[in-house]
Amino acid sequence: MKTRAKSALVMAPLLIIVFLGGYFLIAGVFLLSLYALREYSAAFGEKKPTSWALWASLAILYAGFLAIQAPGGVPAGPAGLFMGSYFWVLCWLFVSLVLCFVSTLSMGKKDILQGMATIVGVIYINFLAFHLVLVDAAFTQPLYVSGGEGPGLAFRISGLHSYVWIVMLAAFGTDIFAYLTGKLLGRHKLIPSVSPNKTVEGSIGGVIGSVVLCGLFARLFLPHGLAVCIVIGILGGIVSQLGDLSASAMKRRLGIKDWGTLIPGHGGVLDRIDSLLFTAPLVFYTLTLNAFFMGSAL
């Protein structure tokens, strides 16, 4: 119980930054990514990826996005943000890949797989985690707390009317329900060579839990997005488990149990957000496609 209480205290700031949203979320996701990169690099031991390329890629990504968000940047709304972000992310990806390949020039006799590990780190952590920021920026109807006269003094808060909560519920809800269902009903192993404790029954329970939580939350706070949230609940329940299993496979190949030790009983930051990394892009692209085809900004 003490371990779970400590874990809750460590994860509490994440919930706070999701509620605040905006620049708070951008800063929070940036710091989470920074720490996750640290854990990722340390897991490789002496054959770690090139750290400076990972840090530089992360800094360039967020600096460019903040420039897009500045007054006079990309037009507001999902369409404008999507097109602006789409162009910027392509530019960032090109620059990041150049950095990764340039980093191999200084490797000398080191294993070329270190260069590949650098590229994987850029995509796996920097790119995938960035979708949390995109979901908040494109699909949140924020609350504004005025700090005085004039729109320039308004203070933006995402509150509970944010689809970032759907990302959280699909990822963490799947994890929790899969664990509970597996404990109670688990009989058939899912992929024992990758994760021996996961069961087919637990996997199904995780998807059901994701659908229930996403549906209930949407019914209360995002009623216009109820249908798409149920779809996300189904797909997110599957994709989040793929994220967890993929991370388990990587850790098994690296010969480690956890990415880190920051969160008692749960490992490191990367251990807690591995399912989130797959779920956030799913939610962003599902919402974008829904807005495009249904003609609604949600």
Q: Which features characterize this protein?
A:
9 helices; two-stranded antiparallel sheet; 298 residues; mainly alpha; globular; single chain; two-stranded antiparallel ribbon
Question: What would your notes on this structure say?
Answer:
The protein is mainly alpha-helical. It has one domain. The chain is 71% helix and 5% strand. The strands form two sheets. The protein has a two-stranded antiparallel sheet with strand order 1-2. A two-stranded antiparallel sheet has the order 3-4.
SSE diagram, text form:
Blueprint: H1 2-20, H2 22-42, H3 51-69, H4 78-103, H5 113-139, E1 143-146, E2 154-157, H6 164-185, E3 189-191, E4 195-199, H7 200-221, H8 226-254, H9 269-294
Helix pairs in contact: 1-2, 2-3, 2-5, 3-4, 3-5, 4-5, 5-9, 6-7, 6-8, 6-9, 7-8, 8-9
How do you describe this structure in short?
This protein has helices at residues 2-20, 22-42, 51-69, 78-103, 113-139, 164-185, 200-221, 226-254, 269-294, and strands spanning 143-146, 154-157, 189-191, 195-199. The protein is mainly alpha-helical. α3 (51-69) runs antiparallel to α4 and α3 (51-69) runs parallel beside α5.
Q: How many helices in DSSP terms?
A: 9
- C-alpha Rg, in Å? 20 Å
Helices and strands, in order, run as: HHHHHEEHEEHHH
pLDDT < 50 stretches: none
Lateral strand order in the biggest sheet: 1-2
Strands, total number: 4
Kindly state the mean pLDDT as a whole number?
85
- What is the terminal-to-terminal distance? 40 Å
Helix content, binned percent: over 70%
The biggest sheet amounts to:
2 strands, antiparallel
The domain count comes to: 1
Please tell me what the overall shape is: globular
> What is the strand content?
5-15%
Helix- and strand-based class? mainly alpha
